[in-house]
Amino acid sequence: MTAAATLPRDARAAAAEGPLLAVRDLTVHIPVPPHVLRAVDGVSFELNRGETLGLVGESGSGKTLTALTLMRLLEPPLAEMPRGEVVLEGTDLMRLSEIEMSALRGRTVSMVFQEPMTSLNPVMTVGRQIAEPMVRHLGLSTRMATMRAEEMLRLVGIPDPARVARAYPHLLSGGMRQRAMIAIALACRPALLVADEPTTALDVTVQAQILDLLAAMQREIGSAILLITHDLAVIAETAHRVAVMYAGRIVEEAPVASLFAAPRHPYTRGLLASIPRIERRPEPTLPEIPGMVPGPAERPAGCAFAPRCGRAQPRCAAKAPALLPLAPGHRAACWNPEDG
Amino acid sequence: MIGFVARRLLQAIPLLIGVSLIGFGLMHLAPGGPLAVYTLNPTIQAQDIERIRIIFGLDQPIHVQYVKWATGIFSGNWGYTFFGGRPVLDVILERLPATLLLMGSALSVAILLGLSIGVLGAVKRYSVFDVLATTGALFALSFPTFWFGLMAIFVFAIELRWLPSGGMWELGEEGNILSLLQHLVLPTLVLALVITATWSRYSRSAFLEVMHQDYMRTARAKGVPPRARLLRHAFPNAAKPLIALLGVEVPFLFSGALVTETIFGWPGMGRLFVDALGMKEYPVLMGMMMFTAIFVILGNLLADIAIAAIDPRVRLR
Amino acid sequence: MTIRISRRGVLAGSAGTAMLLAAPTVRGQSINRDRIILAMTQEPVQFNPLLYVNAGTENVPEACLFDALWDVDDKGNFIPNLAAQVPSRQNGGISADGLTWTVNLKRGVKWSDGQPFTAKDVEFTYQTIMSPNVAVRSRSGFDLIKAFRVKDDHTVEMELSRPFVPFLWAWQNMHIVPHHILSREQNIQTAAFNSQPIGTGPFLLRSRTAGSHMVYERNPNYHRGPAKVRQFIHKFVPDQMAAYGQARTGEVDYLALGGVPNDRWAEARAFPDRDFLLYPTPNVQFIYYNCGKPQFADPRVRRALTMATQMQKSIDDIYFGTWPRTLSYLQPTHWAYNGDLRDYTNDAAGAERLLDEAGWRRGADGIRAKDGVQLKFTMSTTAGNVARQGCQALFQQNWKAIGVEMEIRNMPASVVWGEYTTQSRFDTLLVAWDPTVGLDPDYTARCHSRMIPVKHRQGSNYVQYENAEVDRLLELGVTQTEQADRIRTYRQIQAILHEEVPFAAQGGSVQGHLKRKQLQGPTPNQYVTDITWNVYDWAWA
Amino acid sequence: MSATAAAPESQAGRVWARFRRHRLALAGGMVVALLLASALFAPVLAPQDPTLLDTALRFRAPFADWHFPLGTDELGRDTLSRLLHGGRVSLTVGLVAMVTTVMTGALIGIAAGYLGGIADTVLMRFVDTMLCFPQVFLLLVVAAFVPPTLVSISLVIGLTSWMEVSRIVRAEILHLKEQDFVAAARALGASRARIMFRELLPNAAAPILVAATLKVASAVLMESYISYLGYGVQPPLASWGNMLTNAQGYFDTVPWLAILPGAAITLTVMGFNFLGDGLRDALDPRLRMDP
Amino acid sequence: MAEPLLEVAGLQVHFPIRSALLRRRIGTVRAVDGVNLSVARGETLALVGESGCGKTTTGKAILRLIEPSGGSIRFGGEDIARHSQAQLAPFRRRMQIVFQDPYASLNPRMTVGGILAAPFEIHRIGDARDRADRVAALLRTVGLPPEAARRYPHEFSGGQRQRIGIARALALEPELVIGDEPVSALDVSIQAQIINLMKRLQAELGLAYVMISHNLAVVSHVADRVAVMYLGRVVETAPRETLFFDARHPYTQALLSAVPEPVPGRRRARQVPQGDVPSPASPPSGCHFHPRCPHAMPRCAQEAPASRIVASGHAVACHLEAP
User: Fold this and answer.
1) Is A264:A278 a contact under the CB 8 Å cutoff?
2) Checking phi first, is residue D100 left (phi over 0); if not, alpha (psi -120 to 50) or beta?
3) Same-domain pairing of A94 and A5
4) For an interface test with E, which of A274, A283, A308, A330 has the most E Cβ atoms less than 10 Å from its Cβ?
5) Is the pLDDT of residue C187 over 50?
6) pLDDT recorded at residue D284
7) Which terminus of chain C is more solvent-facing, meaning fewer CB atoms within 10 Å of its CB: N or C?
8) What are phi and psi of A327, to 5 degrees?
């Protein structure tokens, strides 16, 4: 276990050492005859130790595929598709064998999935499932690992950990299962936690609990979190930085305050505007983004958002804009960005 | 658990009544009957046939015959054979061990082989092995069992003389395990062939199904290596539908055993059935139908209990 | 868990397989002179000789375990068994009017449980046959007994209601059962005796392995002297080819009943260390024409149809020439066979002429018809009998050539020989049957007009044949005690039947048996269905 | 992930695209098409009358005489003609049995699945009861019940093998009927019949179609079994099953008599099995290859 | 006040729990346990709550897609709770439903034209030609081109499908449409489109909506009045503004505080209730919310609070509001 992974650190201090995770030009092109689906199209971002990066996008934007790719969790035949680099603590994950990758997963990098109801093995006790990575990666005895599993359950706020450890997943509620999932993911105190829509399937009161828990666990363990969600409100409450994806690309990336205060990409702006909020005197109509996400065949040569964009210019349709810094830490891929 | 078994056994009663009614009806409404065998005897005359019909009780209305038979069953009397007057239960029970042995050995071979082939096929999906196994399984499923059996006898027993062509023991060697094993090889392989093919296909799809489940991805995401994922995570889950299949497989096995036993002269229930059907031995046929029905019901019950043992979500209700 | 257990089982199994393949195969090379193994395709289901159903199959336990009053040898002579001598006019066993029969029984015969055999057993056997509660296969002959008297322990006297010469045959076919055991049974039908028989025969039943074989042990106290081998094994090999294979390899010593497949006779004859026995049976195969159906009412039609068939060809090509052609209901070797009959088959032109003459003319569709009835009918036999199906196909083609359409409609044995036959519902049948009373030429049950079951609820004249002259001759035949008289009568009957053809004889069924050269005893006997008729005499040379 | 991307091709087009990738299935389909065509045109293709016998010409070897390309059988009938006509019989049995099976099974499955309650209990108990009988048992008992003709054998096979289909269909219907489009139809006031046959049935078509192809295969096999046991299609009508049975005695001396119909059965069953497998892969969304 | 279009009183939907041995009824899931609601013409009533609270069951029971176990459903003055299917037929035209899942709610084997023509076929309205015209008009109404009729549902995106679902609901010109989470499966940008469409249609056609949702932010944009459900019971009913800014029931307050807001750093001091929603098969005694309620009193565990009117149109079922 690396020292870095165990000690809670100040995120800013860690950033000085260079990023924990650097994703460079990640591309997943899937041939779906007669087209090629550019599901992930040159995605690059970095994540510092102890930091939470929110990766936000609507369905089909490629955010989940990005997460699965950097975990190397794609199944054949998709497993052969990705290109690019995923450098975690100096190691390019894309070059590791499945066995090498197995040694890393659950130890240095873990993942929490969207569906707590199906992500736990139904025929194994919760305790065993939490203990398993500890036995495997930390070399603990089964007994030790089981005890540690109960500790983990207590840590993720499960009231009766000893009982729950012996229970099977189907006896737990959705919220409890998601806590157990988090316990599994954090059992070996990984440096990076990838959380893919961890609260989407949960009720709003439980969602709030889980988000609080993630924040608390981050303080406790110091893991960096890649939080993938379609819900900008969740991002606003949880992330330090945000990357917005649209049609396989990151269109804007910024610290969370900066993005919400002054979104520069028209898509981000439209997205933010269309979120319904609880207001005393709401507008009679919600602002909407016209049109819909283009299908693989309809994706234009230039900026994928151009057909829906009110600020589109001729060159938008011709050539895709690069993701360029517009302000410190704030990058956007737009030929005609909104004002800061 | 006890409540579950009790309820299932209670539920079995109408099922058995249904089986007996359908079986009885089919048999007795069918043209022909046990008396036809007597017709082959040159000295028999119409008046003899009439007399025997009355002795066998076949002159009574069918519902009376059914009620008589059913009351017998309730008091543990499975009736007597028309030809020989032996208790039906004895006649069936003396054949049962041979059938169970053949079915058991064929099933064991088939499960082991089928499971291995299926799992390997699922793991190495679309590999050369997978394609060969899938094709081979379909090929095996396309063979009429009897044809394969005759070929096996022709090659191994007649031409090569490696193995005996039929029967269960060398005469005078009853009780000699080696002799039994020699006699068991060909019928087992023939009967196992089709089951192996079925099992390889089912286990392949069961494993494929399980391997695409979210929890398998979770296992992968926490660093469980492939072999352990297969054995510890996939296997118990994939075993469930396969065990259910095992329960459903019982009647199919009986069917297969019937043909195999006929070809190899295996002294089991299959041949008893064919003989009894030929002679219209109603009491034996009825007894065997009830027997297999009970086996099917027990098979399914055991499968359900086994599934509940594996899967904590399944409660025996 | 299930799967692990089975894995272990299979590992053991595959280890076993490896062992067996390595083991030398010694099966069946040398002779075990202590025993004789007989193979058949069918399995007897019961051992009570009064109840048997499968002639041939159940004759084996019957002959091994029981005795009749007298037997028939391969020459057709009666030889005494439990009777001291075969009753005849000469020895006073049969009264002058042929109505009173006296039988003296052998003394000192014991049942296998040690009880003495007496006249009471014979009386009990008779009573059982006539009992309404016992499914005896036939009372033919016994129903003529008006009075049965036990004179003393070793003499019985029977009084018949009318003279009946074939009465001898009735008793040779009926084995005597023990009074002291069966009289205690409430229901003979389900008595334990039926599976644990006690008899006076040359062997005792030692063990029975259902579906596989039966082992008989020699009876040391047999009244004709103990058998010459210690053990006799009756093995069941349901597949004929498999049984033939076992006879070739020597796994069995004698293959009988079913026997060598017809197409292998040439091959079987050539084995140097085996005897091939040509075994005639009393069976004759016929085409049965249902005279009650309008197409077949006219004897000319039946005759024309028969003329059109290639009978000899069917025997040559389908039975590989192994069957003798016969023109009557008797095998040509039978003492009463009418050798003057002329084979008129294979004459399509004659058949056409005869049909034209009878008024059946070809219609537009090529099928003959008369008065709006087309000459179209079905032919049935047991489904799955390949050779008979071949015959049917040949006859179908023969008849098609003369404008007659026949449709093959075969059914399982239990259906075709059920009411379909007994209630005369068929058009035509292809059927092999033996004469009605032993090998006596009496054929009353099959062709007397009173014996039509649909009309008179008795007999087995399923073809519904009616001919007053035949009736008269049949009634005469059974009263004639001189063989020469009888020959005359039955030749006449055969001649009429040959003209009117209610059933067209095809051939006499013959079986090919295969035995080891060293095995002595098995002797073809066309007068019985029982291939073990002299089993007490079988021995190794 | 890409689910919202509207596919321009039709559903059938996509199924066909997936099916086409399955090379064995394609081969199976072609074999089936060929067999069907040869059975359909058997009277034209067959060089001889399949029932015409001439025992003088029996046991001719294949490829020895151009009059009898595949030789002759034990009665001197032309094997090729009998194979072609036998195919007609076997395939008819297969198809008729399949239609019977699928119709009975689908009807009972839909009724049990959609109506639920007592109807479901009664129907499924009936299915359970039927499943207690090994199929060969039922088949033989029923075969003894009716004279073996082409139609009766097909119906008997069909009526003894529908239980599996009804279970599949019921399971599918139980799943489908919880879908909102059914609730929508009910909210519109649609009748039960309309819901069962217009809304549900077309959606259960995929598993039914797959079951259908596999049932053809198993019915062809079944016909050969019951022929083998002596209850099958009667001569002189040739079926592959009874050709095999007749050839039994010549297994070691004239093996091609058994090999040819055996191969024909195997080919047919494999063709339909591969076809069914391909359809299953193409129609079952869970086994899709695309993301 | 005019008579409401829909008035639901004491609505109950109970599912039996059966025993192992003889399938005897040994318990009951009270999915909907005495719900009172009313909807006026042209009004939107939102029914909110977490999963398992019975809101969808309530919606379906109103339409008689699930059989109610008790209570009355007065629609246009007539109680339809016990009507036979035949008696219901005329009411089927007057109330309709839009479902949550735009994939499952359209029959994948029918063309869009077939799906939209079904209402007319079922009610025998018009001939084929007439129906085609009506379908085209419906498609235009929901903003889709008439050519869409020839295509199959899978060729459309989620938002477009939801438009088709709305078009089907509108086909028979109903007075009431029940929206069962109609936008919760959609992406945010599409969600806004559909909300706007539904509001527009309401204005144009004078529809009344029962909008079932777990998303309070969405509800705040569409509802005139809001009813909050918890474990089969309505705990609070109030006009929109009152509910969002002056909620009285502790559960409503907790729900509101848990709603995440797209404003960084505005993570409020949450009063998130601890634990999960209990199973409706074995709800807590008394007030169902008491185990999670920060203000729970001994009485709450014993006695279910009755609903009390605390202000005009504002009813709360909480002992805190007891006089």
Assistant:
1) no
2) alpha
3) yes
4) A274
5) yes
6) 60
7) C
8) -155, 170
Examine the domain organization and report whether A95 and A202 are in the same domain: yes
In Å, how far is D2's CA from the nearest CA of chain A? 5
CB contact under 8 A, A168 and B226: no
Token pair of D165 as six digits: 């289909």
Query: Are C484 and C518 in the same domain?
Result: no
Residues C78 and C186 in one domain: yes
For residues E195 and E159, the answer to whether their CB atoms sit within 8 Å is no
Counting DSSP H helices and E strands in chain E, the numbers are 10, 12
User: Could you tell me the CATH number of the domain that includes residue C298?
Assistant: 3.10.105.10
Domain hosting C393: range is 281-509
For residue E109, give how far its alpha carbon lies from the nearest alpha carbon of chain D (Å). Answer: 6
Query: What is the CATH code for E6-109+152-321?
Result: 3.40.50.300
Q: How confident is the model at residue B42 (pLDDT cuts 50, 70, 90)?
A: low
Among the partner residues A58, A203, A277, nearest to E189 by beta-carbon distance: A58
Quick: pLDDT tens for A10-64: 444 444 467 899 999 999 988 877 778 888 889 999 999 999 999 998 888 889 9
Domain covering B88-280: architecture: Orthogonal Bundle (1.10)
Within 8 A of E187 by CB-CB distance, chain A residues are 58-59, 230, 293
Q: Say whether both C221 and C327 belong to one domain.
A: no
Give the separation between CA B51 and CA E154, rounded to whole angstroms: 73
Whole-angstrom distance, CA of residue C421 vs CA of residue C434: 16
Question: What predicted TM-score, i.e. pTM, was given to this entire model?
Answer: 0.82
What residue segments make up the domains of chain B, in order of their start? 88-280
pLDDT in tens, chain D (291 residues): 333 333 444 566 766 776 777 777 888 889 999 999 998 888 888 888 887 888 777 888 888 777 788 888 888 888 899 999 999 988 999 999 999 999 999 999 999 999 988 899 899 889 988 888 877 777 777 776 677 778 888 888 898 889 989 998 999 999 898 889 999 999 999 999 999 999 999 888 888 888 888 888 888 888 888 887 777 777 777 888 888 888 877 877 788 888 888 888 888 888 888 888 788 777 764 443 332
For residues A142 and A224, membership in a common domain is answered with: no
| pLDDT exceeds 60 at position C465 | yes
Taking residues B138-150, what's their average pLDDT?
80
B310 and chain A: CB distance < 8 Å anywhere?
yes
Minimum Cα–Cα distance from C138: chain B residue: B44
CB within 8 Å of E157: residues ≥ 6 apart: A292, A293, D4, D6, E190
Mutate to test the interface with A, among E188, E195, E228 (most CBs of A within 10 A): E188
Output the CA torsion C322→C326→C332→C335 (10° steps): 150
Measured CA to CA, the distance from residue E48 to residue E249 in angstroms comes to: 14
Distance from CA of A63 to the nearest CA of D (A): 9
In this structure, the number of other CB atoms found within 10 A of the CB of residue B14 comes to 12
Instruction: Give yes or no: residues C176 and C76 share one domain.
Output: yes
Q: Could you tell me if A4 and A92 lie in one domain? A: yes
Residue-number span of the structural domain to which A143 is assigned: 120-188
- Tell me whether residue A90 is in a domain: yes
Q: Is the CB of residue D290 less than 8 Å away from at least one CB of chain A?
A: yes
Q: Among residues of chain D, what percentage have pLDDT more than 70?
A: 90
Segment holding C301, helix H or strand E: helix C299-308
- Contacts of residue B1 in chain E, CB cutoff 8 Å? none
Give the position of tokens 């479902």. E99
Out of B15, B159, B209, name the one closest to residue D129 (CB). Answer: B15
Contact yes or no for A59 and D5 at CB 8 A: no
- pLDDT of E23: 62
User: Looking at chain A, which residue has its C-alpha nearest residue B227?
Assistant: A99
Residues C112 and C173 in one domain: yes
List, in order of start, the domains of chain D with CATH numbers: 13-49+66-287 (1.10.3720.10)
